Amino acid sequence: MPPTRQDRVSKGKTQGIKGSLPETTCPQWPALSLTNPKHALQLRTVRDGQIVTISDFWSQALCKQYVKFLAQLPLITTPGKPKKGDAVRVNDRYQIEDAIFADRLWKETGLKDLILNRDESTSNHENSANSSHWGGEVLGLSPNIRVYRYQKGQYFDQHYDDSNTITCQGIPARTTWTLLLYLTSANEGCVGGETVFYPERNPGKGQTKSQMEVLPLDPIAVPPKTGMALLHKHGKDCMLHEGKEVLEGEKWVIRSDLCVKR
Fold this sequence. Notes:
The chain is about 15% helix and about 30% strand. It has helices at about 60-70, 100-105, 110-115, 125-135, 210-215; strands spanning about 45, 50-55, 75, 90, 90-95, 140, 145-150, 155-160, 165-170, 170-180, 190, 195-200, 220, 230-235, 240-245, 245-250, 250-260. Strand 9 (about 165-170) and strand 10 form a beta hairpin. The protein has 5 helices and 17 strands. The strands form 3 sheets. Strands 1, 2, 3, 5, 6, 7, 9, 10, 14 and 17 form a 10-stranded antiparallel β-sheet that branches. It is α+β, with helices and mostly antiparallel strands.
């Protein structure tokens, strides 16, 4: 049975994998010079205040280059039977604390300008609303960089993403949104692997819990698309979600988190 919001403190959480502590030597990441034009980037709302996507955030050429590079990293396969309270996750992963790459990913790709809506015509009111949307004054991306490879038969069961308190660019921060960057899709032979969200129905006046369960909201499925970035809110407002099983090929993902000032 999937974890409920009341269970989230002890069930279905994302946790670090035993034996997969972050690497200490940062890799020589390929240049980000093959990204698409920054002015062409747009945020598309999938669910208001919860899920947004950025199509063509990376070019297909850059994604292909990174998949070749990432395949050489020392990936660790997660255990099929997690410890009590953790979500079932079966994939290959790599984790590194790399503030320099996080800063490059934030600034050199156009993500910073897009998230902060940097424009000379932007008013103080609009800046304030923008901060409210992302959960506070946005600082950048978490230096905790994770690489996921899902091969045939691998998946990530239903779970919530926790918010974490960290230091971002030397400033006390907390994470508010998960960033997923898809490097492969059906174009590269990846079948399955959709990220599926399960909205929770807010109780209406006079509605009982059983009535709400009878009329569940439809799941929101986001299929992987090469070069697309997906941002979804996490922490106390995180939606229950999962990474569906990959049926053919490989799904490659780079993950970080959006950070705001504490």
